[in-house]
Write a structure and sequence with these properties.
It holds the Pfam family DUF3438. Keywords: Signal. This is Integrating conjugative element protein (TIGR03749 family). With 288 residues, the protein is of the alpha+beta class. It has six helices and 16 strands. Strand 5 and strand 6 form a beta hairpin. The strands form four sheets. Strands 1-9-3-6-5 form a five-stranded mixed sheet. Strands 10-11-12-16-14 form a five-stranded antiparallel sheet. Strands 2-8-7-4 form a four-stranded mixed sheet, with no helix packed on it. 19% of the residues lie in helices and 34% in strands.
């Protein structure tokens, strides 16, 4: 039975907290799932790609010339500026600390390429180091209790579900420099399948888990929603979601037809006292 409470997901609250998360910055989200990411560059205009990790960039010979493509990397961001158009070239991005590789298919265009900042989201399975998992899962109970007490003090008057949803939205959609730290909040393993057909069974929508964070016994999980119908646009309603969920906030209120620029969005789902994996219908909770 769907026990979703809608008190946090309707009206101005969601608009205001997600508006604050974006801070008026237009950001395109790309999800790395071991398939090369297609990125267009506008000739003559710099485009910024955020990865939130220190990387080295490997260029193919055809564009390894500052007169063709200028590349700079600093503070978890890559700055790309094409000075002339070029056909699609595969670029290798390697994490300096973990040696993990992400592949970009870069194309420089005179017209039609956006200059919006890009944020690359790397799934836990691909990007999470074992040391990170150890540090998060191995915190002592005392450390957690201390963090919880401090977080409660720092967020007086703001419900934890709102704090979590705001942080998750900022983490995925806002530049890293604008993310507000929250004491006691930590990223956690999702233990979810790659697709979740029973989350939104009434619509032809693919649901893919992205990341999860936890604070004071509450968990927020970001799930990517993609429309699979090429002819219909859908208004999104949290009551259509299935599971023992506390609240859900859609990044966008509608989901455009497949193939349109609006065919994908993110929903931030909050659960209380359990992970989303355990809150889902039994048909897909076996792997939790």
């Amino acid at each position: 039975m769907n026990r979703l409470k809608t008190s946090l997901v309707k009206g101005g609250l969601c608009v205001s907290l997600l508006g604050a998360a974006l801070q008026a910055h237009a950001v395109e989200i790309l999800h790395w799932d071991r398939r090369p990411l297609d990125i267009d560059l506008p000739v003559g205009t710099e485009r910024v790609i955020m990865l939130d990790r220190n990387v080295r960039v490997g260029l193919p010979r055809e564009i390894a010339d500052s007169g063709v493509l200028r590349v700079q990397s600093a503070g978890g961001a890559i700055y790309l500026k094409a000075d002339q158009p070029f056909d699609t070239q595969r670029v290798r991005i390697q994490d300096v600390e973990t040696n993990e590789v992400v592949l970009f298919d870069l194309t420089a265009k005179e017209n039609g390429a956006s200059d919006e900042e890009i944020k690359v989201v790397i799934s836990e399975e691909d990007g999470k180091k074992s040391s990170d998992s150890t540090s998060q899962d191995g915190q002592s109970d005392k450390g957690r209790d201390t963090g919880n007490q401090e977080s409660k003090k720092s967020s007086v008057g703001t419900p934890v579900p709102v704090v979590l949803t705001r942080f998750a939205a900022q983490s995925l959609y806002a530049p890293s420099r604008t993310i507000e730290p929250v004491q006691g909040l930590s990223r956690v393993a999702m233990r979810l399948p790659d697709t979740m057909p029973s989350l939104l069974p009434s619509l032809p929508v693919a649901a893919t888990p992205v990341a999860a964070w936890k604070l004071d016994g509450w968990t927020v999980t970001a799930v990517k929603l993609s429309n699979r119908d090429p002819s219909r646009t859908f208004e999104l309603d949290p009551r259509w979601l299935q599971g023992d969920l506390y609240s859900a906030t859609f990044m966008h209120s509608t989901l455009g037809r497949r193939g349109s620029v609006e065919d994908t969005t993110t929903v931030f789902i909050v659960t209380n006292g359990q992970s989303l994996a355990k809150a889902l219908p039994l048909s897909q909770g076996d792997n939790s």
